[in-house]
Design a protein that fits this description.
alpha+beta; 2 domains; three-stranded antiparallel beta sheet
Length: 86
């Protein structure tokens, strides 16, 4: 997600369009991106640290974006989905 101090013209355009489309009550819209990484095996502390490093150095532009890493248990017993959102 873009940092709060960074202008978000795409989010602003969506926010302005919502009332015209009949959607009221939305105070702010921020645009972002999401990556889903499927991890083989368990997502332990070492795997999470590696994924955090991937997000910080490659997936997110940390000059203008904040990011978060979330873990969701996959359908198969051997995989987990890790979502990196910025």
């Amino acid at each position: 997600m873009l940092k709060p101090e960074i202008l978000d013209p795409q989010g602003q355009a969506v926010q302005r369009a919502l009332p015209r489309l009949g959607f009221e009550g939305i105070a702010d819209v921020r645009q972002g991106k999401r990556f889903e990484l499927e991890v083989e095996g368990p997502v332990d502390d070492a795997a999470l640290a590696r994924i955090h490093e991937i997000a910080e150095t490659f997936l997110a532009n940390t000059v203008i974006e904040d990011f978060s890493v979330k873990v969701e248990v996959g359908e198969g017993a051997d995989t987990s989905a890790v979502k990196a959102e910025s």
